[in-house]
Amino acid sequence: MDDRIDELRAKGVELIAGSVTDPAGVTRAKYVPLRRLGDFQRSGMGVSPSWSVFCVDTGIAFTPTIGVAGDLRIRLDPDSVRIVDDGIAWAPGDLTDQAGDPAPLCPRSVLRHAERAADEHGLTALVGAELECTMIAPDGSPASTDPWSPYGIRTSLEHSAFLVDLAATAERAGLSIEQIHTEYGHDQLEVSLAPTTPVAAADAVILTRIVLGRAAARHGLRISFAPVPFVGAAGNGAHLHLSLADADGPLFSGGEGPHGIRQAGGSAIAGVVDALPDLIGVYAGSALSALRLKPGNWAGAVACWGLENREAAVRFVAATAGSPHGANAELKLIDPSANPYLAAAALLGSALRGVELELELPPEVPENPAESAAAPPPLATDQRSAVDALERSAVAAELLTAEMVEALVAVRRHEIQTFGDSPPAETTQALRLAWSC
């Protein structure tokens, strides 16, 4: 431990942040002086159980099992510490009880359980993330009013100093960014991350949000991860790509099914599609999510799959020369208000459930679902419907635990009560920075 402290001190680190991301999708942290790094690992830092039902505003959604009594700890692994700003290093934390055992409402532990379940099935899982976000001015207004060119070289080079700083900060933090580009929406960016194991992938999502936020601040910008930051603006997604392999190789290539999908791979995709109505409240259950989840937004609002189909909930990427990481299935409807650990656990868990039940791959929808007679109707994406479906879902309880579902439902019902009758413009303004780091 002393060597690790000396190493970090030599790099100018003075404070260590350990964070957890709550069911509402908000990342919260505690800091200690560098000399207390070992304490952050051994005994952890105390937090109230109410952290698990903190809401996107200042509310607390107490439940019958979560009140004012009790204490939990945030514990971190010193080897996972990454430098994120001058003098500041960060690490993802596990939420534990006083004895050091995983707390029932630790999202990172829920995902770790899903990762172990894949291993018990003889499967290796890799997850890659794409983060969309919107640059905004310090006062919360749009960052620019100039005409925007989606993916344009002008719009990206006008932010070249920020993008170079972002790349350098990410490299310093050990973050494997594969691609950065300006997106379709005004002042919108996307950052793509390399695939890795599920827990590491969710950790990387949080690290990316922090790195984006710190780099932007140095250039007079703020970063919004709201599903829709301004009424009428393009929505921000938080897509996850999943690949699976067994002893015989990848499940999504080398087989006799469509696009080379093996039978078990087809069952995995079927499991993801089958569980979508139950899990929208996990993937996109916030007060702003439904503004994005509409046909025509490339947000995957229809429970179907298709090769490179950006309107399908599951976009399949085949194993071609243009896919350096091989075949994978991308879940498009996830947005940044989702807890990335729970979203990844739901995605992986529903795929494993499909394999275990040997579900049949549904027919592919190769065209725009809105123009296909074979496609199912759009999903019920309004917040009330999503939360109701989550609350009564046996699948969600199986994949995430009943305790976690209770907490998720509680914080989202608070949002319904608080913002349900508000005009969208007021809600977007109130929550524009709710999920920023």
UniProtKB/TrEMBL annotation:
It comes from the Bacteria. One of its GO terms (molecular function) is glutamine synthetase activity. Pfam families: Gln-synt_C. InterPro entries: Gln_synt_N_sf, Gln_synth/guanido_kin_cat_dom, Gln_synth_cat_dom. Keywords: Ligase. GO terms for biological process: glutamine biosynthetic process. Residues 364-385 are annotated as: Disordered. Residues 107-437 form the GS catalytic domain. Transmembrane segments: none annotated. Belongs to the glutamine synthetase family. This is Glutamine synthetase. It comes from Mycobacterium yunnanensis.
